[in-house]
Amino acid sequence: MDTKMFCYQCEQTAGGKGCMGMAGVCGKKADTAKLQDRLTGELIGLAKAAYENTNVNEATDALVIEGLFTTITNVNFNDETIMALIERVRNEKNRLVPNCALCVSHCGRTDGYDMEKLWTDNEDIRSLKSLILFGIRGMAAYAYHAAVLGYHDNEVNKFFYKALGAIGSDGWTAETLLPIVLEVGEVNLKCMALLDKANTVSFGDPVPTEVSLTVEKGPFIVITGHDLYDLKKLLEQTEGKGINIYTHGEMLPAHGYPELKKYKHLKGNFGTAWQNQQKEFDAIPAPVLFTTNCLMPPKASYMDRVFTTEVVSFPGLVHIGEDKDFTPVIEKALELGGYEEDKHFTGVNGGEKVVTGFAHGTVLGVADKVVEAVKSGEITHFFLVGGCDGARPGRNYYTEFVKNTPKDSVVLTLACGKYRFNDLDLGTVAGLPRIMDMGQCNDAYSAIRVAVALSEAFKCGVNDLPLSIVLSWYEQKAVCVLLTLLHLGIRNILLGPTLPAFVSPNVLKILVDTFSIAPTGTPEEDLKKLLD
Ligand code: SF4
Ligand code: SF3
């Protein structure tokens, strides 16, 4: 095995510096990491080949998006599928610029990029290019989900080439790279808006929905990840078959969408956030379908019950292809039979239910009430506590933070970090629930819509609202969401549980000086600071 790997794209990176051994902390092997680097290098070559090339078409865009999405943490551990993807990128380069690779007067027009050059570059350049790369990886996931539902945005698609081109260009300075870092945030806002439109037109505007944590007796399937289209297909194929469907992880907000919740056999939510899956899936008498990250290497005890689809892949797991024929998953559910009696589970704090569905449509629907409550002093503060969950013990910060928020404040949340507190009963304020789950990580778009609407109602800037943003990050979607908030000029964001290894001291200084971004401290100190 080749042991030379370098990866520092996620929060759990080894020693807070980078995974450099035989395998990453996530279980990604060195060979796979190197193939992902090669794929990224080939995508940079494809971006060069696409420059002012009239042969670029929707298939080229789709390939770039798929290639970037594949390299997100906990998506794809399968060398075979990554090698096949590399081959497809090479073929596409050859279609765009035929025979370039064979030409005797070599111009380098379609050459792949050696990612080693990036990983060994000056630390500030490496840091800025990493922010661009990891940001577009996250954005590609959102563009992919929108595309699955038939929604595309040419401006978003074009930006992937520009950003890849910047990563592969030598001699660029921090001054030229920094604007592109912020442009990732700007374009990601468009991309999240696109996905919001795709989801709400396809499945309706989410409505507040109470979700049971009890698994009823009989056969069932657990579906996890972010892809609502896969859930819809699974619901259609299992209807009337005596099989219940339970969401897991980032699929929880699906319960709020009218076109998904109408299926009576979409029963509830099983389990908590991704990092608990090896424990939670170990003993369940049911199959699990992964539609996106976060997949952990499955243990032998439940490997025969895990299925993947779309870009998720792990050697040895059954993969459901483009035909979306979920028969193997359905047969597994029937074979395993589920629990003999209803099984009662709780959230991490002992709660027996959770509530979701507070997207912008719902919250803005009661905007008058919210504005009145702020004016009368009934609501004194909003906290957006959102982002990824992860394995670090320090992530209890978010539970303690939410528990300690004042009784006259509202906590908006999104993404899988909410499992730390979404089963807490914090009661209501001004007739509204004190915790409102706005959805998945991409539904940061909803939070932005609400913040902008509030700032318009109060005729002030978003930074002047009684609103504090406390983010938890783990993988690359959190990077593009953070860059969107920065692009909007939002200041004083608290980021934890640790700062990204790929942010160099100089780049951090820029972020601190420009946006007053700060690492999370203790819940008590941070709350005091934010409420002063
Ligand atoms: Fe390490 Fe994270 Fe990269 Fe996995 S994705 S190899 S844990 S930095
Ligand atoms: Fe979670 Fe992986 Fe990021 Fe979509 S499922 S937020 S960590």
TL;DR of this structure?
The chain has 532 residues and is of the alpha/beta class. It is built from 18 helices and 18 strands.
Structure description:
- Helix content is 42%, strand content 12%.
- With 532 residues, the chain is α/β, with parallel strands linked by helices.
- The protein folds into 3 domains: 14-202, Up-down Bundle (Substrate Binding Domain Of Dnak, Chain:A, Domain 2); 209-344, Rossmann fold (3-Layer(aba) Sandwich), CATH 3.40.50; 357-531, Rossmann fold (3-Layer(aba) Sandwich).
- The chain has a 6-stranded parallel beta sheet. A 6-stranded parallel beta sheet has the order 15-12-11-16-17-18, covered by helices on one side.
- Helix 5 (123-148) runs parallel beside helix 7 (174-203).
- Bound molecules: iron/sulfur cluster and FE4-S3 cluster.
- Iron/sulfur cluster binds next to loops.
